[in-house]
Amino acid sequence: MMKNPLDFSGKVALVTGAAAGMGLATAQLFAEAGATVVLADFKEDAIKEVAEKLVAAGHKALAMRCDVSDDAQVAALVDRTVSEFGRVDAAFNNAGVMARIAPTAESTREEWERVIGINLRGVWSCMKHELRQMERQGSGAIVNNASVGALTGNPGIGSYIASKHGVIGLTRTAALEYAKKGIRVNAVNPGLIDTQIGHDVFKGDENVYAEAARSVPLGRAGRPEEIASVVLWLCSPGASYVIGHGLTVDDGMTVV
C-alpha cells in the first residue's frame, strides 16, 4: 500500500516566482507537507520575509534572489540548493510575467524579448539545471507553469501566448527524454486565478476582471492554493504514471 503520497518529508522542493501568488502558495504547501523549500524570486526582500516566516513556523526554507532569464543565476540557484540540501526532488518552474497589451503589429522587440526571456527561456534554463541534478540522483519531478493561454489565442498578448505554448512543447519533449531516467516532467495550465497576472490581463480594470470571473462555471476566480494542491500532486508518487501532461485547472473555462 502506498503511504500518504502528499508527504514530502525528507524531500527538497524548489519554487521560482515564490514571492506571491501561485508560487508563494505552492512553497507554503510544500513546507506544510514536510519538504525543505527553496524559494526563488527577483523580489529578494519578499522571499526572505516568506522564508523567515516558514522557518519561524518550524519548517526548513531558504530564500535566494534569482532572475530566471539569466542562466548564470539559475545555475547558481540550483548549485546552492544542492550544496545546502544535497538534492532537488521537486521543482515548480512558476516565474512568469504578463505581456504589455498591444496587437501583434504594434508590439515591440524589447517586449517580446522580456516576456519570452522570462516565461520560456527561463523555464528552459530552470529545467536544464534541475534535470542535470535529477539525472545524477536518478529521480525527481518537475512541474512547469503554463496557462490556458497555452491552449488558445488571446488578442493583445501574443508574446505571452507564444511563451506558454512553448512551455508545453518543452514539457512534452523533456518528459519523453527523461522518463526512463526516473524523472517526470509535467505542466499545469491555470485558468483565471486571483493573482496579479490574472488582473493584468484585463489592464487592471476590476469591473472587467469581476465579469470574467462570474462567467466561468463556478462564478469565481481560482485561488492560488487550488493550483498549489495540483502541483504537489503532480510532484508526488500519486502521479507516478503521469508524464508529459499539461493539466488544465480552469473551472471549465476551456470547455465552453
From TrEMBL:
<dbReference type="InterPro" id="IPR002347">
    <property type="entry name" value="SDR_fam"/>
</dbReference>
<comment type="similarity">
    <text>Belongs to the short-chain dehydrogenases/reductases (SDR) family.</text>
</comment>
<dbReference type="InterPro" id="IPR036291">
    <property type="entry name" value="NAD(P)-bd_dom_sf"/>
</dbReference>
<dbReference type="GO" id="GO:0016491">
    <property type="term" value="F:oxidoreductase activity"/>
</dbReference>
<keyword id="KW-0560">Oxidoreductase</keyword>
<dbReference type="Pfam" id="PF13561">
    <property type="entry name" value="adh_short_C2"/>
</dbReference>
<protein>
    <submittedName>
        <fullName>Short-chain dehydrogenase/reductase SDR</fullName>
    </submittedName>
</protein>
